C-alpha cells in the first residue's frame, strides 16, 4: 500500500483495495465482452443491438475508471492488466463463435448479472467496513449495471412472453 493521509486504517484500505480489484476484473471483462458482442452480433434487430452493446461498453468503461481510481485513492494498486483480469474475473468466458443475436443477448445479460451480483456484495462489505465512499461508488455502479441489464434483457422479453399466461394468449383481447 502507498502512504496516504486517508484516515481509514491501512489494513482496512488494503482489504477494500483487494475487494475492489476483484470488481475491477469483472468490470473490465464485462467491458470487453460487450465489445465482443458489439462487433459480432448479427440478425434480427442488428443495428439496435450493435448500438446498445457499444453503449454498454462505454458505460462500463466509466465504472472501470471509478473503481480503479478508488483503489488508488486508498493507496492501493489498480490491477487492470489482461493477466489480472483473466485470473480474477468471476464472469464466464465469452465464446468467440457466438453468432445468433439471441445468444449474444443471453450471454451479455448473464455477464452483466454476475458483475452486478459481485458489486452488490461489495456494497455490503464496504458498508460493514464503514467505508461509505466505496459503498457509494459501488452503489452508482450497481444502478448502472441494473439499467444495462434491463436494456439488454428487454430484447428477450417479447410480447408473446408477456401474454403467455393470459387466456387465449392475447393482450387486451386483440387478435393478431
User: From the helix content, strand content and strand pairing, which structural class follows?
Assistant: mainly alpha
- CATH fold node name: Ferritin
The residue ranges in which pLDDT falls below 50 over 5 or more consecutive positions are: 159-176
The pLDDT mean sits at 89
Question: What does the model show?
Answer:
By secondary structure, this protein is mostly helical. It has helices at residues 10-40, 46-73, 82-88, 101-129, 132-153, 159-163. It is elongated. The protein starts with 9 loop residues before the first helix and ends in a 13-residue tail after the last helix. Mean pLDDT is 89; it is low at 159-176.
Structure at a glance:
With 176 residues, this protein is mostly helical.
Amino acid at each position: 500500500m502507498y502512504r496516504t493521509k486517508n484516515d481509514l486504517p491501512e489494513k482496512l484500505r488494503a482489504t477494500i483495495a483487494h475487494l475492489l480489484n476483484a470488481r475491477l476484473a469483472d468490470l473490465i471483462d464485462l467491458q470487453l465482452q460487450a465489445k465482443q458482442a458489439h462487433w459480432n452480433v448479427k440478425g434480427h434487430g442488428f443495428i439496435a443491438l450493435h448500438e446498445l452493446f457499444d453503449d454498454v461498453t462505454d458505460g462500463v468503461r466509466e465504472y472501470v475508471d471509478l473503481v480503479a481510481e478508488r483503489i488508488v485513492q486508498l493507496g492501493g494498486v489498480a490491477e487492470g492488466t489482461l493477466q489480472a483480469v483473466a485470473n480474477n474475473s468471476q464472469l464466464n468466458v465469452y465464446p468467440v463463435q457466438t453468432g445468433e443475436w439471441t445468444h449474444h443477448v443471453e450471454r451479455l445479460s448473464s455477464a452483466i448479472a454476475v458483475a452486478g451480483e459481485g458489486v452488490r456484495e461489495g456494497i455490503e462489505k464496504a458498508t460493514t467496513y464503514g467505508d461509505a465512499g466505496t459503498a457509494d461508488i459501488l452503489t452508482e455502479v450497481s444502478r448502472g449495471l441494473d439499467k444495462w441489464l434491463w436494456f439488454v434483457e428487454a430484447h428477450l422479453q417479447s410480447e408473446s412472453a408477456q401474454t403467455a399466461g393470459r387466456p387465449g394468449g392475447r393482450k387486451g383481447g386483440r387478435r393478431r
